[in-house]
């Protein structure tokens, strides 16, 4: 029984990370964008954002443009283009976030980060999501934020890609940046190393995904149709952006399909046969400030909310600024989605 409880606690975090497994897939009505014609942009030299810029050049995201990394050209951050696209900035300090009671089923907002550590020690946030669970209404909202979103990062000059917040200041700065963007205090977070995602998929014997568009990515080939993928294949499937007509939004949709398939497989587990492997993966690859007791209550009290998940998207367009590609957010879309999340976090009725 104790081992079964530990398994539930560990899987709670994994299930929350894959919370879209029971989502309707219907975005909120106004202010969102499921696709964007500008999202078709395919830069000839797509930036891979090394995420280790020195402190003096906060907007240095030029892994494939070496001329920009030269000490002779340090003064070209996005701060020099303030009059270009409008971007939502934090205008006032946010209220101090505070813990909620998982035992009582209080509405809660959780920042979910998928971290890619392939190229850097600290890594970069390859996946950024905000999950708002509302057990009072048995529903949830899941916002996927494009990693190239051009935003203000607290304490940094100018505008930068939102996924650089993690490179500059880890989970703490990511929480502050996302909180400022959507105007919602966030206290809880779960950070998952993408290497753990690969191990999880392999530990479950693979994942079955319906591939809508064929493509090649880093030596891997994906054909249209139903495909059984191992961990490496599944991760590559969720990473590709530049060959997708929908750009980063298409990538988010593929992440959703993989998480749904993975969530279904986790729900079909029988007994505790996978307990040792799953627990080991969770302990090594999941970092969170949700304690073991809260994780158990999260699994027990919030699961009904995960059966009614509405996915939210931020409208915007892909634009090239200073030879870098950004996803420029639509301020009205940000305003609307923020209001939806804030309302849900307060447990309000429709």
Helix coverage percent = 25-40%
Strands of the widest sheet, in order across it, are 11-6-1-2-3-12
Give the full name of the CATH homologous superfamily: LCP protein
Would you report the number of β strands? 14
H and E string: HEEEEEHEHEEEEHHHEHEEEH
Proportion in β-strands? 15-25%
Structural class: alpha+beta
**Count of separate DSSP helical elements:** 8
User: Poorly predicted ranges (pLDDT <50, ≥5 residues)?
Assistant: 1-95
CATH-level-2 architecture: 3-Layer(aba) Sandwich
Q: Please, how many domains?
A: 1
Structure, described:
The protein is α+β, with helices and mostly antiparallel strands and 350 residues long. The protein has one domain: LCP protein (Aminopeptidase, 3-Layer(aba) Sandwich). The chain contains 8 helices and 14 strands. Strands 11-6-1-2-3-12 form a 6-stranded mixed beta sheet, sandwiched between helices. A two-stranded antiparallel ribbon has the order 4-5. The protein has a two-stranded antiparallel sheet with strand order 7-10. A hairpin with a 6-residue loop joins strand 4 and strand 5. It is globular.
């Amino acid at each position: 029984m104790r081992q079964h409880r530990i398994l539930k606690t560990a899987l709670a975090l994994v299930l929350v990370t894959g919370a879209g497994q029971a989502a309707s897939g219907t975005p909120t009505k106004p202010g969102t964008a499921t696709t964007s014609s500008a999202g078709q942009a395919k830069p000839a030299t797509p930036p891979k954002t090394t995420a280790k810029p020195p402190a003096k050049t906060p907007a240095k995201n030029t892994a494939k443009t070496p001329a920009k990394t030269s000490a002779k050209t340090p003064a070209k951050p996005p701060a020099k283009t303030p009059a270009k696209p409008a971007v939502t900035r934090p205008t006032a300090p946010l209220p101090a976030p505070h813990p909620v009671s998982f035992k009582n089923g209080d509405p809660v907002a959780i920042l979910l980060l998928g971290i890619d550590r392939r190229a850097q020690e600290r890594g970069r946030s390859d996946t950024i999501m905000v999950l708002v669970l509302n057990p009072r209404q048995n529903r949830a909202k899941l916002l996927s934020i494009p990693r190239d979103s051009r935003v203000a990062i607290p304490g940094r000059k100018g505008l930068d890609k939102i996924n650089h917040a993690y490179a500059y200041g880890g989970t703490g700065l990511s929480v502050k940046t996302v909180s400022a963007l959507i105007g919602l205090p966030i206290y809880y977070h779960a950070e998952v190393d993408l290497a753990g995602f690969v191990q999880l998929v392999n530990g479950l014997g693979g994942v079955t995904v319906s591939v809508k568009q064929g493509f090649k990515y880093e030596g891997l080939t994906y054909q249209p149709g139903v495909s059984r993928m191992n961990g490496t294949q599944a991760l590559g499937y969720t990473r590709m952006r530049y060959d997708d007509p929908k750009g980063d939004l298409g990538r988010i949709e593929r992440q959703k399909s993989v998480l749904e398939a993975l969530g279904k497989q986790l729900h079909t587990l029988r007994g505790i046969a996978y307990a040792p492997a799953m627990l080991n993966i969770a302990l090594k690859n999941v970092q969170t400030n949700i304690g073991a007791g809260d994780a158990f209550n999260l699994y027990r009290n919030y699961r009904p909310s995960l059966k009614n998940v509405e996915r939210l998207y931020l409208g915007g367009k892909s634009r090239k600024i200073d030879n870098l590609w950004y996803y420029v957010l639509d301020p009205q879309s940000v305003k609307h989605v923020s209001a939806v999340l804030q309302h849900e976090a307060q447990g309000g009725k429709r």
